[in-house]
Each structure stands twice: as C-alpha cells, then as structure tokens.
Amino acid sequence: FDPLMRWVYAELGVCRWSAVAQPDHRGILLRAQAHGLRYGAVVSVLDSGPGGQRSFGTFARLDREFTDEELVLLGSYVQARHEAMR
Fold first, then answer.
1. What is the SS3 assignment for 31?
2. Closest by alpha carbon to 56, among 41, 78, 74?
3. How many Cβ atoms are within 10 Å of 85's Cβ, its own excluded?
4. Which of 19, 38, 70, 86 has the lowest tally of Cβ within 10 angstroms?
C-alpha cells in the first residue's frame, strides 16, 4: 500500500515524495509526516540485463524539500551502492 514502494517498482530514477503520483489510500505519507518525515525523495535503479536486480532508497528530512543537486547526489549514491553489489 506504500505509494513510494509502488513508485520504486513502476519507475526508475529519482523523485521527490511530493511528486509521486501513486495513490496513497492508506495515508502512509501522512503517517510519515506525523513522525517528522515531512519531505523526502525516492530512488530506483535497475540492472539492464535479463533478470535485472533492483536497488532503491528512500530519504527523508523534516525541514525542506531536497534540492535538485541533492537529488542528483542521492541518485548517484544509490547507483554506486547498486553497482558495488554486482
């Protein structure tokens, strides 16, 4: 039911939580906000080969949206960790 996990398996790249278009019928992101996880980003990477492995990460902060530069860094970080596991 988590819209971020649905995004991870439907998309590739980096996205702010506020831009995730997946429905949140169970209020998962509202619950996260109640715990101080107000702003966030989600990253999804996938191997290009058959049976490719997927890696993902979700990141949160309470004070502001991630900047475009921070999104690039988060995407690069997850991609590097993904490649290190191959």
1. helix
2. 78
3. 7
4. 86
Name the token pair of 57: 């990460």
Each residue of 2-36: b (16+ CB within 10 Å) or e?
ebbeebbeebeebbebeebebebeeeebeebeeee
pLDDT of residue 78: 97
Residues 42, 14 contacting (CB under 8 angstroms):
yes
Name which of 54, 38, 40, 46 is nearest 4 in CA terms.
Answer: 40
The pTM of this model reads 0.91
Greater confidence (48 vs 8) lies with 8
